[in-house]
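Narrative of accomplishments. A recurring question from our advisory board has been how the design workflow behaves on a single, concrete structure rather than in aggregate. To address it, we present the structure tokens for one chain from the evaluation set, followed by the sequence designed for it. No filtering or post-editing was applied between the two.
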């Protein structure tokens, strides 16, 4: 909590409340939702003087609701990835993948608007994004080796499965001060993104996704609270519902006419056998569709506090942990069960994914895994090191005033 002026009374330490963790990197979405601080009650004192007492800010339930519903889409999407031979599953898969990660990235960018290297934010970037990336990149590689019986390969330069988002978020956050000073940041980011798909950049740091999805992060940086207020209006909810139904219908039509790998945002145009003009047009259409679907989805998010609002603060736990469940089902052959590859089986898998996603955001899981996702690591940091003064300048400032030679004194005056 910050203050514009120093309070007259000694501020009380902020007490955490259930679900109040920075696990949204969002983490998913990476910062605590904007909030307002209600005026504190006047404290009775001698002579009736009132001493304002600072109170903690309350999280905006709208964004926590959005993040929780979005993480459920992620878990469901990863579950449907193994059922693409079912037409309903493939249509839902394309529909979800068209906007679920852009949604997270836009929200993350919105809460990164004030990100700088000051105020301990750089440390938080390391502990809440960098360290979890190293931990889960290693954990998933070991898991793949032990359960999947593959060769052991741990590479921090080639993100495994879903850890790419942490890698990308680390670079996006570092670039925030740059985008905040460019006159047309969204246009510049979009040009970089389109150019990145015109050649093969390799798999290091999943660089195609880092650059390709950058416009969504920059878009979030450009948004203001008023933009979200527009989406909270009743008429926006009606329009949003119509748009989502239209998007689902479009996904049904596209399922047999579109290579679903487009929605991964990770391959150059040459991968799809198209020229750069066609590929660029496809990317622009995908950007437009994703932005429209993100806005439509947000218009349907509840504005008030619900039973799942508190879970929206811990979506990073569900994001990083649910992969162990989906990978286990893959390694053990469960995804090959015939009953799953039916329409009822598809909806049963989706229901199970919703339960798993909700559980992984719960308090017991957070308490058990906070050491990996939100490590304190105060021992690893020191005060900010500043450049030392030059020897001559240091000696001059260290010398007593009476021993210093007056400025401009060269030869003695006559």
């Amino acid at each position: 909590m910050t203050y514009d002026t120093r309070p007259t009374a000694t501020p009380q330490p902020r007490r955490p409340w259930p679900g109040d963790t920075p696990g949204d990197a969002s983490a998913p979405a990476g910062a605590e939702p904007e909030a307002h601080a209600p005026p504190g009650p006047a404290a009775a004192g001698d002579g009736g003087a009132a001493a304002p007492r600072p109170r903690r800010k309350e999280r905006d339930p709208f964004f926590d609701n959005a993040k929780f519903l979005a993480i459920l889409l992620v878990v469901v999407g990863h579950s449907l990835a193994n059922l693409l031979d079912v037409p309903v599953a493939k249509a839902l898969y394309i529909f979800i993948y068209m906007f679920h990660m852009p949604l997270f990235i836009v929200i993350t960018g919105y809460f990164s608007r004030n990100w700088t290297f000051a105020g301990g934010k750089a440390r938080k970037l390391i502990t809440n994004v960098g360290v979890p990336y190293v931990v889960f990149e290693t954990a998933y590689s070991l898991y793949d080796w032990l359960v999947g019986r593959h060769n052991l390969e741990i590479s921090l330069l080639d993100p495994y499965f879903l850890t790419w988002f942490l890698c990308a978020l680390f670079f996006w956050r570092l670039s925030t001060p740059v985008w905040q000073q460019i006159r047309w940041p969204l246009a510049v980011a979009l040009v970089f993104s389109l150019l990145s798909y015109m050649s093969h950049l390799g798999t290091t740091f999943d660089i195609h996704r880092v650059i390709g999805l950058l416009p969504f992060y920059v878009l979030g940086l450009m948004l203001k609270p008023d933009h979200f207020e527009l989406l909270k209006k009743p008429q926006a909810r009606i329009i949003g519902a119509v748009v989502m139904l239209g998007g689902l219908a479009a996904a049904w039509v596209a399922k047999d006419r579109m290579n679903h790998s487009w929605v991964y945002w990770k391959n150059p145009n040459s991968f799809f056998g198209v020229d750069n003009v066609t590929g660029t047009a496809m990317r622009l259409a995908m950007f437009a569709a994703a932005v429209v679907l993100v806005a439509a989805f947000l218009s349907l998010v509840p504005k008030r506090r619900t039973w799942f609002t508190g879970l929206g603060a811990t979506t990073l736990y569900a994001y990083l942990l649910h992969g162990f469940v989906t990978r286990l089902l893959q390694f053990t052959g469960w995804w090959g069960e015939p009953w799953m590859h039916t329409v009822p089986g598809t909806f049963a898998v989706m229901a199970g994914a919703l339960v798993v996603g909700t559980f992984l955001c719960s308090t017991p899981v957070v308490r058990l895994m906070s050491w990996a996702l939100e490590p304190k690591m105060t021992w690893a940091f020191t005060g900010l090191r500043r450049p030392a003064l030059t020897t001559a300048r240091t000696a001059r400032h260290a010398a007593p005033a009476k021993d210093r030679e007056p400025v401009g004194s060269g030869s003695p005056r006559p």
